[in-house]
DNA sequence: GAATCACATAAGTATGTGCTTATGTGTTGG
DNA sequence: CCAACACATAAGCACATACTTATGTGATTC
């Protein structure tokens, strides 16, 4: 159940914020830490969890490690969500907008 | 951050299984418990968490309480997911299938 | 090659979470 | 009414998790 790891990873608000920040553009761990009240080890641990959940992937660049959003995690969530499409009401505007975007 | 409650609710495998079972059709707490190795209080607590996360909603029917999937929780996940559509690769088959379904 | 930097890992601790048993609440049927 | 039922809540406990400080690892710079 990889989805469980994904949900578990996103269950923590700090980790959710890290992911959200990373979604604005790939950056290294130090850059991610800027403006966030979080220690270096804590950030490293959070990134490790996000990476295990396939929400984030890393790429060594010299002594920096560049992190970026891993689409695979998002795809897995989308897959999970798709299983329950029978329950999506017509009024889900977010989804409708989403669909339009994909059609283009 | 209501999404955090949703992710936290789905982070537990037991709760995930309960939701999945409920997605096959609405039923009461006792029926949900059938075949699952889980005590009555544990089930009640899990349902309470799922309800707080808007993943499930209840309806009293005599001395039974009927539970069903609450589309609002799914919509919130879809909304969260939509924020990161920039990262969806074209190869996400699940999403593509999902889109086709919605178009019909 | 030694110091420094960017990051990872180890170990300990405080808090959170999911379970248990016990009990409470509301409903139904005899 | 009262016994049985369906479910909720309370309290306590075992374990998980998110943090801390301390230290390790690999790369760069002087």
UniProtKB/TrEMBL annotation, chains A, B:
GO BP annotations, alphabetical order: response to arsenic-containing substance
GO molecular function annotations of the record: DNA binding; DNA-binding transcription factor activity
Alphabetical list of CDD domains matching this protein: HTH_ARSR
Domain HTH arsR-type: 1-89
InterPro entries: ArsR-like_HTH (IPR011991), HTH_ArsR_DNA-bd_dom (IPR001845), HTH_MetalResp_TranReg (IPR051081), WH-like_DNA-bd_sf (IPR036388), WH_DNA-bd_sf (IPR036390)
Transmembrane segments: none
Record flagged with keyword DNA repair: no
Iron found in the keyword field: no
Keywords assigned: Arsenical resistance, DNA-binding, Transcription, Transcription regulation
Protein name: Winged helix-turn-helix transcriptional regulator
Species in which this protein is naturally found: Sphingomonas alpina
């Amino acid at each position: 159940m990889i989805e469980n790891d994904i949900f578990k990873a996103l269950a923590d608000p700090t980790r959710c914020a890290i992911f959200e920040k990373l979604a604005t553009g790939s950056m290294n761990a130090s850059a991610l830490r800027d403006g966030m009240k979080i220690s270096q080890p804590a950030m490293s641990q959070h990134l490790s969890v996000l990476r295990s959940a396939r929400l984030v992937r890393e790429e060594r660049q010299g002594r920096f490690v560049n992190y970026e959003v891993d689409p695979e995690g998002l795809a897995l969530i989308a897959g999970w969500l798709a299983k329950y499409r029978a329950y999506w009401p017509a009024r889900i505007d977010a989804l409708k907008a989403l669909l339009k975007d994909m059609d283009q």
